[in-house]
Amino acid sequence: MYKKQTKLLLHYGLVTMAFWLLCSFSAIAGTEKAVIGFNKAPIQKVLETIGDVYKVAFTYDPQELKGSQTINLDRKERSLTEVLKQVGDIAGLRFMQAGRVIGVQKIGGQLSSPAPRTHREEVLISGRVVDAAGQPMSGVSVAVKGSSRGTTTNANGEFSITVQKGEVLVFSSVDFASQEIVAEKTTTVTITLQPNEKALQEVVVTALGVKKEKAKVAYAIQDVKGELLQKAPETNVANNLVGKVAGLSIYTKSTLYENPEIYIRGQSTLVVIDGVPTQTDFWNINPNDIESVNVLKGTAAAALYGSLGINGAIMITTKKGKAGGNGVEVSYNTTTQFQAGFLRVPKTQKEYGMGWNGYYAFIDGKGGGGWYDDYGYVWGPKLNQPDPSTASGFMEVPQYNSPYDPNQLFEFQQNGYTDYSHYKPIPWITRGQNNLKNFLQNELSTTHNISVAGKTDRSDYRISVSHTYQKGQVPNTHLNSTNLSLAGSLKVTDKLRVESSIGYNKQYTPNYPETGYGPNNFFYNILLWMGPDVDIRDLRNYWQPSGGRTTSGGSFIPYGVKDIQQMNYNYSWYNNPYYLAYEFQKGYTNDVIVAQLNATYDFTKDLQLLVRTGLTGNNATSEIKTPYSYINYGTSAAPKGNYRVSNASNLLLVSDVLLTYKKTFLRDFSATVSAGASNRFSQAKSDFAQTNGGLTVPLAYNLRSSINPLSVGGSNPDAGNSRVESQVGSVFGYTDLGYKNMVYLNFSARNDWTSTLQKPYNSFFYPSVSLSVIGSEIIQMPSFISYFKLRGSYANISSDVSAYYTIPVYNSGTSWNGTPSLNLPGTIISPNIKPRKTISQEYGTELRFLKNRIGLDVTYFKYLEKNFPKDVPISQASGFNSIRLNADEIYRKGLEIILSGSPIRTKDLRWDITLNYSRLRRTVKSYYGGEDIRDGVKVGQRTDVYRTWAWERSPDGQIVYGSNGFPKYIDHVVNLGYYNPDWEFGALNTIAYKNFALSFSFDGRIGGMLYNGVEQKLYEGGMHPATSNQYRDDSYAGNATYVGQGVVVTSGDVQYDVQGNIVSDTRKFAPNTQAVKYIDWVFATYVNGIPDANMYKRTFVKLREVTLTYNAPQSLIKKTPFKGASFSITGRNLALWSDAPFMDPDGYEGTSLADPSYRNIGFNLNLKF
After folding, report:
1. What is the C-alpha to C-alpha distance for residues 380 and 263, in angstroms, rounded to an integer?
2. So what's the pLDDT on residue 148?
């Protein structure tokens, strides 16, 4: 079925690999020569060209080179040494090289020869050179001023040089301001080089992979350096981006192999790897392969990607080849992280056991004894009650692990009642104090990565291999992920350069845990419904032994043999957790390939053609093995097991061509004009099959073991397949205009033709325009303002719909006498469905203060989203339920603030901090049909309202009780608050001191509402710690002693509008005094479908990451084969502050149970050789 697609992936991979091998061989066998020549070129231009070609930097006095003759040199292949000699002979210059920095002297000038050496005292100057962030700088030139003597720093930024006392040492590196010191005595120094003004013009990756100076970019963009993701990497690298980018929301999950949710400004987003749009959930991305991540936040930022980029884009740039000291750089990185306890886990009561209303007895485990026989609640008798009439001294009742005698009925007493069971009564005592802890295993993850890279003047290559193993918290769950990436580029001629990369990832897990509320959730089973009378360790042998048992009715039920019937404390509602872990297997394998191949041809220095194609494909296989006696919500869902296998493959193929012309004219003006075309093809295929009626033989997991023939008809077939394809063709272009370093204006336009919409709406055009003004280049700013920029953008973007969304599709119906039938869909589809449209405006400013010590970036955005394709209800008298058309208009507005600074910056100590803040609001602009209100939300109001049933309350917020002593609820739904947070934030800190660096980050959300389903279920099940009280005992005894805190209405009335707002209130109140049974109050308050009692603020603050790194000095590793070494101690998810009990609000959707979150502590080792 997948033969054709597999052949395509294989062909693409082989071509890319062959190209990579060519690059690597070229790099290994290449020389340091390059083709170069000049025609009447000024000497400054000659030096600039030599620097670009041979990757060196020149230092010289411009005044000294004035009047130098122009250079004529025929164009041919030369080494750096050859070209310097020839240029020097022509221009009368002498060159002095130290590493990659070359000093230039005019022969006959003031510095024409080295200063004469006298017999002054010699001193040894040694130390380390670091950048502004405290990171070591390799290859820095350390030269004696006025001479040709010098050295360079090693991989750890260290140097040592002997000079004469009083001589001046010059430290210089490309893109950094030089620094000088006077050698007065033997000493050790630390030199910090600051970026020069040119280096401060940060380069970012924008749409289509085009690199631009950030000053020219007129929309919000924020980048994250790859090294920030590699010290404490998560198995899913998206989790490492949490809190690092304003406006990027990531909802993390604590369960093994569960995808994080990723949004830019509240919308799911496009991911682009090396300029090619991809389909990825980030599991296939190796953090050690990432050079940088640039987040393009607005629609204007990604307008050139068409509808794919309607919500912005995450641009990932991978590492490329670079040379080490011997032309090859080898790096090894390993990370190990251990679980270090729970960050937030539900607490449970330990005083009461299974049962109902104070009664419990195990009769047959299926409710044969009524409410008190394993009915599913933990509202049973109090544990550890003394009873002098028993041999144990405690109250004794029949239990799941009692001795069984089919020939004897045992008598037992409970709350004054006498009953009988074939199970012998045993002490009713606390056995399971730490059931969750005793069941789970410590989570562990390890990653090993090795990379080899090389580079010459004509080619580069890089190969990286990594493997990650993650052991889950649940026994018998783990994940293996292997990555292989190859990247290379080759300068075929002076005009043609070819680049390619391919990444392959294989994910495999034989079993991963199920999440959400349900009988397969381990935490659900153990924390909510397993009483402390059960010791989970007793359930490890999860198969019942051979033999049988007699029911209370006298019938004999055989146990059978192993692999037939699970052993558990309950046979009505829940499965044995060990049985689920080791027998209910959910296996998954996913093979992912991401590849791209591009060629760049320079017709002239101003005209360039880029041809590129990229492919993302995956093939996933899932197997679900359901064993015999599987239980699902009180029914034997699969008494004889089940087997299901499914396959799914996805393919995204994007090809584009881009012609670009760049020109500077009239000295102060610059222009870049690009035009291109693109084609995007996507395909998704899937099939599945499962047994019918169970398995003929236990554990025989294959389709041929199906008891009944497989059915392919009806609404629930046992087998089926699907295939979905779509295609988009596009033309696009953009123009960048610049004036000096002051003003930059950008225009872009695109037209798409999509296969998913009907004519004439399948063709849509969308433009964008943006403006950037560097105010600090136009106006003389106060001395404390280093940089000032204003920016604004406008975009009008359209997007298509999913495949077949506008085409009626018949559904399979019930078979009649073996004849299949088809059902007409219940939705009428309008023939006039248009593409969804987003009109965006964005305004921002960037400021830097105090010589760039402090930075401020502020962005305001406003989107109008219209033409939402949706199904609108209609009268069923029409024969249909709804009509599909374009409806509604929504505003999306927000604010993003980034504050960065360096509070401390000394020779040995530096502290850098970045604060991110973002706020998002959605409001209704209009409804389809001119409605003013829909579902309780008026035009102009927020869309994320939490609208549900609620208690009636007094003006001061107290719950109103009825005369029966139970809370009263309003007879219609009301607005309780808003789901989304008021704002989100992140704080990143890095403190560097000599060879040490400490980084730590906080993030969180403030405001918003969530429904705490964990707390609600703890109350319902009788496991909430607050249910362990005297009122519970009174309730068991039939006494009504609990009085709910609140008020009763003594007179008057209250009126509400349709949104639940009070429009009139004449009520008078008095305290509630009506006593009720506690168990009845709990169910009336927490189990009646009124979520009011379980609503909490989403607010939380989390200490997300702490990393302490030590960079080994050269003195420690100089006798080793390593050129560099660092060791880090890491911690993630270390602390949480939140008012919501029993749960971690981070990543919690509020609709299902959240698994307990945990801390991770580990280490990272990085070696270079």
Report:
1. 46
2. 60
